[in-house]
Batch of 3 targets.
Target 1
Amino acid sequence: MFRKSLVIIMLLALVLTACTPARSEKQVVPESAPSEMFAGAPPSADVYQPSEGARAIQQQAGAISGVENPVERLVIRNANLSIVVKDPAEAMDQIISMAEGMGGFVVNSNLYQRRLPNGNLVLEGNVTVRVPALKLNEAMGQIKGLVDNPQTDILSENISGQDVTAEYTDLKSRLRNLEDAAEQLRKIMETATKTEDVLQVLNELRSVTEQIEVLKGQIKYYEESAAMSAISVNIQAQETVAPISVGGWKPEGVARDAIQALIDAYQTIASAVIWAVLFCLPIALPIGLVIFFIVRGFMRWRKRRKSDSSAAVAEKSE
């Protein structure tokens, strides 16, 4: 009997010893973590693998450091040009046709009249077009080909570039992470049983979806801006920059500037006189008359009072 009891005790001890490690292995997940959060999660072997967003960040980090998978630079190139032509309207039409022929489009255009100091009306305009970034130099060359003399009729030219690779890469990484989070939230919502949990996950999913749409809009803006370069052209008529003619002689440099400044000074003086006569004088005249009569009445009253005081003193002395 004693031997049978001893055997049973030894068997129980072995069973308890074998069960102890199994219990410790099951306690991998913290007790504080709610079971609903892992209802739609993949097996434990996949939980600890890096997600797609994490792998993308690692690849981009290695690319930026130059280790592997170099990232293609994303540069936004724009240009500004100011030219002088014989016919601004015709030049604007040619620029628009050129942009559309290259697969671009017109952003805005404006054609207007300007009155010169000599009273003549001339056309001026400005137009902004977008052309494929790879054809920016070709488009600039065609626009500059519209002038008669490139040395004098091209007033200004500027091409600027903005490297947005870092911002673009960051947006793409954030987008992947948010898309991963949205997918996990959808899986959790499918397995949730409580109404409160479903509503909470739905609100969080809605917030993540809004952030995804914002990031997609920013990414699209960068991609379109880098793919299509903007060219802003200011078009002037040759008559607007023609030198002043005085008796057949065309002064240049300082003499031209001095004559133009003198004309502007006379115009300013004439304008001031016109304003003084037509605007200031009708207002100032009644006010001045009122002030004049008030001062004159005060002086008369003071003089009369002084004379009365002198007469009173004279009577007392007698």
Target 2
Amino acid sequence: MIAGPSEIGVLADESANPHHLAIDLLSQAEHDEMASSILITPSLEIAEKTKTEVYAWLETLERKAIAEVSIRERGAIIVTSSMDEAVDLMNQIAPEHLEVVTSHPFDLLPKIRHAGAIFMGAYTPEPMGDYIAGPNHTLPTGGTAKFYSPLGVENFLKRSSIISMSKAGMDEIGEACALLAHTEGLGAHEASVRVRLKK
């Protein structure tokens, strides 16, 4: 797992509370100046109100200096033409944390493909995952949620792959294997399969 700066992505529709969205974005920004906080919404009104709220909240933070740099350098509010476009864009970002703050968040869940931890609904802010809810909070950062998962019990297990092929199975797919080995120029690999194929 690649460790990097803290990240939050927020998907929001017109039902979201901009006051809440703003402090959720800042909850990551206060970590460090390299943290990123990104809101994506199809609602221009939500975008504008959230921006105003971010700057109002900033004035109240003990870690204002850190959060201010983070928001200025790595913060973004993006307005899309639809929620589907917002989800597609968020999947490209693959954030460490993703809040889905919409009127029906579970309707979007099947479309979300890349995120470390997903927080569903207006009453599930990311800090709940930091401190109380969820199995752990060791999450993929820097877009690595595209190919890596949160730390889980499976990371502490040793596994082995078990492969078993019958003669009928070998006869059915062995030629494809031999062709791949031949294409790679690995003659012993190819022969190991071909000697087992039916004549």
Target 3
Amino acid sequence: MISELHPHRALGVLVGAALTAWCFVFTVALLWRGLTQPIDLPAVGLYVTATLFFGLGSLFAYWTYSCLTLKYFLDRNGLTIHWGDIRQLIPMDRIEKLVPGRELPAPKVTGVSWLGHHVGHGLVEGLGDTIFYSTHGSQEELLYIVTAEHTYAISVTDDVQFAEELQGHQKLGQVVSLPQVNERHSVAALPLWNDPLALLLAFAAAVGFAVTLGYVFHQYPGLPESIPFPFSSQGFGDKEELLSIPITGLGILAVSLVLGFLLHALDRAVGYLLFLSGLGAQIVLLSAAIITLNQ
């Protein structure tokens, strides 16, 4: 028999949703401000800031989804904690004792932590480093699960009932021996997150695009309405055509990052190649902009 336990998640989800909405609203406001002001270098700052807030909003959205899905499964084999795409397996034979949170001082959690949602690590007096998967508002709502390797903190509505259920499952005996591990699934399991080189190449491609955009926007206000284009058959053209360089760069960056992100899981070399191609394209486009504006 499997016991499924749900901590109180409403407050954590509401706070997370508010943080997510704030980031996305601020992203739209920054983009609108950038699109409605003259083409100049300050506009690039608005676009870069908007991108950062969009990324932060995406993280808050994922963390809020993870809070919504937080639950604990208890059976004769052990305790499984579900948080988003992460599964924390705690075998029954590794559990040494349970410690109610009311018996210890209030912990400080570092990681994904806001009102009603705490996932990360915290130093607990008497227990040491502790892994938190909880929605507690005070230490009275916490229950610490102590094993030889790690200590975990969860939120339960009734710690006495939880202890009784745990003892009942322990008496049944384990059917299979589980490893005490942190399993990742779906997006969280992609090898890209543990590949510093791939992340560095992807970041370098993004920076290359930002440099190209910044250079074009910096030069744009002082240009005459008609400028020479060495790569054009007509020789001259409207200066607005210069904007096709960063627009092309944005399209190439998006394609290289998306395909690199997806194909890296199948073959790292292909992912590296796509990220490098995105970076190389930005260098070529920047060179084209420099040649055009300095002839």
